[in-house]
Amino acid sequence: MALLGAQLVITLVMISIIQKVGPHYSLARWLLCSTGLIRYLYPTDSELRQLANIPKDQWKSKKGQRHLENGHQKKDTFHVPRNLDIQLETCTVSPLDVVHLRYYDEYQWLLDFTLYSIFVYVITEIYHSRFPEKNEINLSMMWCTLVIAFALKLLISLTTQYFKGEESVGERSTCIVTGFMYFLISMLVLIADESVLEVGLDAAYANFNETTSAFLSKQGLKSSGLLSKIVFKFFIAILCGFLGALFTFPGLRVAKMHWDLLKYFKENRVKQLLLNLSFVLPFILVVLWIKPVSRNYLTVRKFSSFSEPLLQPHTFESLRFTAVIITMLIKMVLTPWYLQAYLDMAYHRIEEQKKEAGRITNVDLQKRIAAVFYYLCVATLQYIIPLIICLNLTFMYKTLGGFSWKGVFDSEESCPIDSTSYLKHNDGPSSTLLQSITEFHMSVEDLKTVFNPIVFRGLFGFATWWCCFLYFATSSTGMVYQSYFTRS
Question: Against a cut of 0.85, is the pTM above it?
Answer without folding.
Answer: yes
